Structure formats: C-alpha cells, structure tokens
Amino acid sequence: MAAVFLKTVTLQTIKTEQNCLRRCLGEHMVQKVALAQLPLVASAPTLSERIHAKAFSTVGDSQNERKKRKKNETDFSNIGRKISERIIHLFDEKGNDLGNLHRADVIRLMDERDLRLVQRKPSTGPPEYQLMTGTQIHEERLRLREREKARPKTGPALTKELTFSSNIGQHDLDTKSKQIQQWIEKNYKVQVTVKKAKNVEEPENRMEELFNQILQTMPGIATFSSRPQPVKGGKAVTCVFRLLSKKEETAYRETQEIREGNPMSKEKGKDKESDILHQ
Fold first, then answer.
1. Angle formed by the axes of helices 206-216 and 170-185, nearest 10°
2. pLDDT tens, position by position, 191-204
3. How many CB atoms lie within 10 A of CB 231?
4. N or C end of the chain: smaller count of CB under 10 Å?
5. Mean pLDDT computed over 179-187
6. What is d(CA 113, CA 82) in angstroms, rounded to the nearest whole number?
7. For position 259, what pLDDT does the model report?
8. Please, which residues bridge with residue 156 across strands?
9. Which of 205, 262, 275 is nearest to 237 (CA)?
C-alpha cells in the first residue's frame, strides 16, 4: 500500500510540474510577440521628421503673424505704460509743451488725467510723446487714413478714353466734362476724340472749340497733355487731358492772386494762365 501511495504522489507531482512549465513558456512567448509588435516610441526622430514637424508648427506661424500685424498697424497708437526711454519730451492733450520729464512722472500724469500716451517723433533726442484722449487718437487715425487714401498712387498714369460727335448738345457736353474731371482728379489721363458730324454744317474750328470748352470747366486742375490734332483723315480730332503738376498748380494760383490783387496786372496774369493751360 505504501508503494502504491508513493507512486501516485510522484505521478501527480510530475504532472503539476509539466503544467506549470507549459504555462510559463506560454506567457513568455506571448510577451515576446507583444514586445515585437510595439513601435519604438522612444526612438529619436529623424531629420526629415524634425523638418516636417517644424513646417507644421504653429509657434513660428504665430510669431510671423504678430510681426505682420505690428508692421500693418499705424505708428500712431497708444503705447500704454511701456516707456522704454528714461527721459522723454512730452506734450499734453492740448498741444502744450511740458518739456522733458522722467517716465515715472509721465505715468503719474497719465493716471491722474486718465489719458493715453502716443509717440510722435521717436528720432529726436529725447523722443517726443504726447498725452491724448481715446477720442483724439481715434480722430487722428481717421485723418491719417484719409490722407493716405488721397495720396496719389505711384507709377505711370493710366489713360481713359472718351468719344463723341461734334454735334453734341450742351447738356451732354457738361455731363462728359464732369466725367473727365473726375477721372483727372484720380490721376488718370483722358484721351478725348471728337468725330465730325455727318451732313451737318459746322464751323471749321468747331471740334477744337469743344476741347477748349472742356478745359475751361477745369481751371487749376487740368491741361493738355497733347494738343488737339486731326486723325482719321480729318474726320475726327483727338487730344489728351492730364492733371496739372504741382509746379503748374502753384503758378496758376499765383496768376489768380495777381489778377485779383492788381487790376493793372490782369493782362499779364491772363497771358501766364494761357501758357499754363495750353502748353
């Protein structure tokens, strides 16, 4: 009996050890396969990956946008309490010169009067600043914006073209003259062509008189860029109007002042005006 019991215990022990060995081997194989399938998350990025990441980074983009906004913003703006200079030359909101002040005193004035600070002339020594209200800053920005719009565009003047018949009525001529003036004030050149009316008896200088009438509606504004000249075998006359230059505009004003201030110089002023408008 003892021998049978010992044999049974031995067989159970061997069987238990085999099952344990199988489980251990199985778990080891599963862990090995799982580790093989995992990506190398801790590996260093390659050069191409770093370049790709940088290209899509929002940090650089936001910095570029801030620089663009800074360039696009008008220099005339409230700088707040960030005064980089220790001593500045200050004007108050009424334009009174307060002289050179320490930035601490300037900040104190801003707080006491509830005003903003704008930089006027940064290149002077010390730089000039002015205290202003929010309304004053807004109005000044609007003024600067309108002045920028009114500034003539650089580059060669473009040309508009207009054609009509020599038997045009006075009302239609006035309308076209206004259109020509609007174009010229926008720094366009205007080429006008007048066709000779068919089966109509007209004076020989009728078409040239039309050009002179148009020019007389724009005193101190326009002149001939090219004199009226016949085209299409004499069946039409064309010319080009342009804006007066600054020099010509000044000369015209001086002529008007002479005419209004000195009756004896009337003929002299008239001759000078004729030279300006018909050169």
1. 50
2. 999 998 887 788 87
3. 12
4. N
5. 91
6. 17
7. 77
8. none
9. 205
Q: List the single range of 59-68, 142-151, 200-209, 232-241 with lowest mean pLDDT.
A: 59-68
Length of the chain: 279
User: Can you tell me the distance from the alpha carbon of 95 to that of 122, in angstroms, rounded to the nearest whole number?
Assistant: 17
Structure tokens at 59: 């940090």
Alpha-helical segments (H) within the chain: 2-37, 47-55, 58-72, 103-113, 134-150, 170-185, 206-216, 246-261, 266-278
Question: Tokens representing 118?
Answer: 């704008």
Q: Are 241 and 214 in contact (CB under 8 A)?
A: yes
Instruction: Extract the tokens encoding 257.
Output: 């002042």
Q: Evaluate whether 238 touches 228 at the Cβ level (below 8 Å).
A: yes
The per-residue pLDDT for 178 is 93
Is the confidence at residue 160, as pLDDT, over 60? yes
The residue to which tokens 């201030």 are assigned:
261
Query: Beta 87-91 vs 128-132: how paired, if at all?
Result: parallel
**CA gap 127, 264 in Å, rounded:** 52
